[in-house]
Amino acid sequence: MVILSESSLISVSEDAKAIVWCKDKAEPDYFYAEFSDFLCSIRKISNYWLVIAINYEWLELGRCKLQDGELIKEQAAEWALRVNSKSKV
Q1: Do 29 and 72 form a contact (C-beta atoms < 8 A)?
Q2: How would DSSP label each residue in 1-44?
Q3: What pLDDT was estimated at residue 87?
Q4: pLDDT tens track for 72-87
Q5: Residue 28's pLDDT is what?
Q6: Do residues 80 and 20 touch, judged by C-beta distance below 8 A?
Q7: DSSP designation for 88
Q8: What is the pTM of this model?
Q9: How far is CA 63 from the centre of its chain?
Q10: How far is CA 32 from the centre of its chain?
Q11: How many C-beta atoms surround the C-beta of residue 78 within 10 A?
């Protein structure tokens, strides 16, 4: 019998797990992470999390909603890594 981890069930890569998230001191339920070419922020809104990727010229690269639950930061990082790879094509 093979027991899968929660991160493998929702397809979270090792790269996504390695992303370091910083908590905003002024706002509860708000985190951000710095990637090489952009920033990604996650903010709790009601019963979901809003994820926004923005480059250093303040242009939005994309946004998505994640249902409230486990591994929010890891899911947001996975999404951000996909956005980053698409923007380099």
Answers
A1: no
A2: -----HHHHTT--HHHHTPPPEE-SSSTTEEEEE-SSEEEEEEE
A3: 64
A4: 999 999 999 998 776 6
A5: 85
A6: no
A7: T
A8: 0.81
A9: 10
A10: 8
A11: 20
Separation of alpha carbons 67 and 54, rounded Å: 21
Name the token pair of 52.
């926004």
Q: Dihedral, CA atoms, 49, 25, 13, 45, nearest 10 degrees?
A: 0
What is the predicted pLDDT for the residue at 88? 61
The answer to whether residues 70 and 5 touch, using CB atoms and an 8 Å cutoff, is no
Gap between the Cα atoms of 70 and 1, Å rounded: 24
Q: What are phi and psi of 36, to 5 degrees?
A: -65, -40
Query: What number of other Cβ atoms are within 10 A of residue 74's Cβ?
Result: 20
Q: So what's the pLDDT on residue 9?
A: 46
